[in-house]
Write a structure and sequence with these properties.
68% helix; 145 residues; mainly alpha; membrane; transmembrane; transmembrane helix
């Protein structure tokens, strides 16, 4: 089967779905997981930390909306692959930011969780699982474009 002859709408369907799943995870996931007493309303968190969480969460949502538009829009330029790859790069920025913060956390006293926060599942922090999956989806989508 000649996939190139099928056109970008068919050949890009799987990478678009992968990018959409990753984007929903990084853009909507924090709204679901973090807007409660385990994070934003955690009694031990300072007001400044709460402000930064809300700022970051709304920023991720905004970038996610742009990424979804890039993923699914058609502007007539014929550069669907370029737009999709830009959406992948945008998502990758958040993913690289997570892994960078993880590596540097001892320098600024950061932790993956707090007492009273989201409990680990079988000893594995959910952020690690989520970001590994998001990264895998984005890498697979890039590879398929």
């Amino acid at each position: 089967m000649n996939l190139a002859a099928m056109g970008p709408e068919t050949t890009l369907l799987l990478p678009r779905v992968l990018v959409t799943l990753a984007t929903l995870a990084y853009a909507v996931g924090p709204l679901i997981v973090d807007m409660n007493r385990t994070h934003l309303l955690h009694p031990a968190w300072s007001g400044h930390a709460r402000y930064h969480l809300m700022w970051s969460t709304l920023g991720q949502l905004g970038v996610g909306l742009v990424a979804l538009w890039l993923t699914w829009s058609t502007d007539g330029s014929g550069d669907a692959v370029g737009r999709l790859r830009l959406a992948i790069v945008l998502g990758g920025c958040f993913n690289v930011g997570f892994w960078g913060a993880l590596v540097l956390r001892r320098r600024f006293g950061g932790t993956l969780s707090d007492p009273g926060g989201v409990p680990a599942w079988r000893g594995i922090d959910g952020n690690l699982v989520a970001c590994a999956l998001i990264g895998g989806l984005l890498i697979a989508a890039w590879w398929l474009t």
